[in-house]
Design goal:
242 residues; alpha/beta; Rossmann fold; Arc Repressor Mutant, subunit A; six-stranded parallel sheet
Length: 242
């Protein structure tokens, strides 16, 4: 008989893609793995939301360009309705605007369809545990974008009268940084390089559970929804490359 712990550990998966061959292929590949159950398949974002509400999956593997309702809108709707459900974007598109829109919508991972089977599987498992993953090409886009934003923020700005209820973006950002301890800042910087909790723990010689607690504390301080948002902010803290 399967122990309750093992049964509880099963990752319930929803596959969303408008191409039947890809949808079925992903379902067969991931569903054959131990500890993973594909509970449903959807051909567009509208079906994805309906099936997510019905099955309440742990993880959704989401395409972006689909008829009726696209993947970005479906991601936004599902994460709003089911905060515990994690979204893995798997798409052929690496357009800058799509990348940033998907992340802002709440995606925990963004992979391209040329990713290996092992990478897709590892991403599904890590996202279920609260990690975030990006394809290397997508990570470079984020680094470039946030370096650009940081450079813009460093330019002199006109002095604008402020009210206590509407602080400037720069003041808010500085205040958030000041809340981090030296250890928290160290862990945040390692998180921004894409390391998992286990890898960070090995690097700083702490227990994995301790690192997890640090990450949760930083998320709470910065009011971040997920690790990916933390990583994006961490990149923005670094000075532009010389």
């Amino acid at each position: 008989m399967t122990p309750p712990e093992a049964a509880a550990a099963t990752i319930r998966l929803l596959i969303v893609d408008d191409q039947p061959v890809i949808r079925r292929g992903l379902s067969m590949m991931l569903g054959a793995e131990p500890g993973i159950e594909v509970v449903a398949q959807a051909a567009d974002g509208e079906q994805a939301l309906a099936l997510a509400m019905l099955h309440r999956p742990d993880v959704v593997v989401m395409d972006l360009q689909m008829p009726r309702v696209g993947g970005v809108m479906a991601t936004r709707q599902i994460t709003a309705a089911l905060p515990q459900t994690r979204i893995v974007v798997l798409t052929t598109f690496d357009d800058d605007e799509l990348v940033f829109e998907a992340i802002r919508a709440g995606a925990q991972a963004y992979l391209l369809k040329d990713s290996s089977e092992a990478e897709v599987l590892a991403t599904v498992r890590s996202v279920h545990l609260g990690e975030s993953r990006l394809s290397p090409a997508i990570a470079r886009k984020l680094v470039d974008q946030f370096r650009f934003v940081t450079a813009q923020a460093s330019d002199p700005q006109p002095v604008v009268a402020e009210t206590p209820t509407a602080p400037s973006q720069r003041q808010t950002h500085s205040a958030l940084e000041e809340q981090l301890s030296e250890r928290e800042a160290q862990i945040l910087d390692l998180l921004a390089t894409g390391l998992s909790n286990k890898q960070i723990a090995a690097t700083v010689f702490l227990a994995e559970g301790t690192v997890k607690n640090y990450v949760s504390r930083i998320m709470e301080k910065w009011h971040a929804r997920n690790r990916l948002e933390l990583a994006m902010r961490a990149v923005s803290r670094r000075p532009p490359a010389a």
